[in-house]
Amino acid sequence: MANHNTPVIQTENLSKVYRAGKRDILALSNLTLSVRQGEIFGYLGPNGAGKTTTIRLMLDLIRPTSGSATILGLDARRDSVELHRRVGFLPGELSLWKSLTGQQVIEYVARLRGGVDWKYVQELTERLQFDPTLRVRSYSSGNRRKLGLLLALMNKAELLILDEPTNGLDPLMQQIFNDLMREVRAEGRTVFLSSHILSEVQSICDRVGILRGGRLQAVETVAALRHADFRWVTLHLREAANPHLLAELPGVTDLTVDGSILKLRLRGDFNPLLQALSGHYVVDIKTEEASLEEIFLSYYGNGSNAHKEGEPVKEMA
Amino acid sequence: MQGVVFVETLRRTWRQTLFWGVALGALAALVVLMVPLFDAIDFATILERLPPIVLQAIGFGDDMEFAVSPEGLIALGFFGKMALIFMVYPVVMGLRVTSNEEDDGTLDVLLSQPVPRWRVVLEKFAAYLLTIFVLSLVIFAGLWLGASAVNIPLDLGRMAQASFNLLPTLTFVLTFTVFMGALFSRRQWVLALVTGFVVASFMLDNIGGLAAKGSPGETLRLLSFFNYYNPSGVMQYGMTWTNAVGMLAVSAVLLVAAVWAFNRRDVGV
């Protein structure tokens, strides 16, 4: 039975500064984060927020400017080899040996890891609908991603560190990926996955760390994040609409009316909106997911509510 | 796991090594096959008419008798003049130890496996070192085949020594490339630095060969690793073990430094 309070990942003031010529670029600032055993932890942030830097620090591919990371009770720097044995990793920008076939890549990594359960590899291959007989150079980006997932999953590692895992996967495959992650969680294993897509994180994660500009803004439960979530809705009615029609409706803000076209920001369920429109003929409804940046601004304002360096990170879980 | 990177490196390299071996072996055989032609055109008389500075410039020194002998022609025409071609192989293989994988991004996958960085460097290095040894064998085989075909009395012992005299130099260039790859993450930088170093060394050695005795040019020649390669000397007098051991010792130091540097730095940035 998984002990959900045991930290599988624990970082303490982890920072990374890159030097570009004479300039110092702060990629990650004083990250203090705890991920518990048996949870799927989403690491959410726009591109360039520092997600990949965090992951590369955890895997000892790059070295911290200051701070430390303890993964599965091991020091990420000193015990990296043992750590790698117990971690499955999928890089964000996955590059594999182009001249090898998928099968040869799997066999190579399996040998490096000291063996693998080939039955499970076969099962994963079938579930991911992956053909390992082709050369890596001939795979589409989606198929390369599948191979990367297979490599990360095949050793049934205690911890999976996945950087933008669904990039390039079609919706059906994303669903299979979600199922696999839920199975991993059910076995008491832990998943740390980074993403810049809110809906992806919402669909499988238990908790979410929100990163922005190299700083951890907050750690939230997915439920709390749902509260912050909103959509842009465009309604096309048959006749010109009354501007006051939806203005007072709870959850509706930023309403603009242009003849028969209404644009608004909707937080929460659709039902009150549909009920308010019951006397009107709706020609079309378009919804657009809010960008991560918009959600940040909506939830944290212009950073005023966000976590300040040196302050404890707001944890709502 | 021990030896996995070594075996995988060999598995991916053997075909290319074979192509290189066949090409260099054929070139060696071709040079030997051409030796009787030099007799036919009375090459010695042609050389005698050339001014000494020109003879020095094209690599024929003071010992004209050796220079026009079959061994001398092979030493100068194959091992000497084609030295830069031989150096391409260890540079190409040295880049594969870390630079190519780092530039391609595959190093992230490799180093996230339970294999220490030092093992990755050493196992790959060992695999490429083995291919260099095989290459030397194939070159010797080419010389032997050529000599058998034209039936000229060649000192095969000296041929073998000249072939294996390539090993310390190629090992040095391989190690130097690995060292540069361990220091710098950009393949283009590594390639530019190594190419510059090899070409500059070649020029230094050639210009130093023309310089008057005791001049700064001759002293500067000591800085070129080609100075310690000296195929003519090996063909004439046998292996210069101090040169060979010296090159291998410097290579060992560079390899240790490469492992140390690579172990300390960020990868893929």
Throw out a few tags for this protein.
heterodimer; A: 317 residues; alpha/beta; Rossmann fold; Alpha-Beta Plaits; 2 domains; 7-stranded mixed β-sheet; 4-stranded antiparallel β-sheet; 30% helix; 31% strand; globular; disordered C terminus; B: 269 residues; mainly alpha; 79% helix
In short:
Chain A has 317 residues and is an alpha/beta fold. Chain A has helices at 51-58, 80-86, 102-112, 118-127, 141-153, 171-186, 198-204, 222-228, 271-276, 292-300, and strands spanning 7-20, 23-36, 40-44, 66-71, 74-75, 87-90, 159-163, 190-195, 207-212, 215-221, 231-237, 252-258, 261-266, 282-289, 314-315.
Strand content of chain B: under 5%
Total of DSSP H or I helical runs spanning 4+ residues of chain B: 15
* Oligomeric assembly: heterodimer
Output the strand order for the largest sheet of chain A. 6-7-8-3-9-10-15
CATH C-level label of the largest domain in chain A: Alpha Beta
Secondary-structure element order of chain A, N to C: EEEHEEHEHHHEHEHEEHEEEHEHE
**How many separate structural domains of chain B?**
1
Percent helix of chain B, as a range, is over 70%
Write down the Rg of chain A: 22 Å
- Compute the number of strand runs of chain B: 0
CATH fold name of the largest domain in chain A: Rossmann fold
What's the CATH architecture of the largest domain in chain A? 3-Layer(aba) Sandwich
Uncertain segments of chain A of ≥5 residues (pLDDT<50)? Answer: 303-317
Order of helices and strands of chain B: HHHHHHHHHHHHHHH
Largest interface: A-B, 30 and 23 residues
Cα-to-Cα separation, first versus last residue of chain A: 21 Å
Shape of chain B: globular
Structural class of chain B: mainly alpha
What value does the average pLDDT of chain A take? 88
Shape of chain A: globular
Fraction of helical residues of chain A: 25-40%
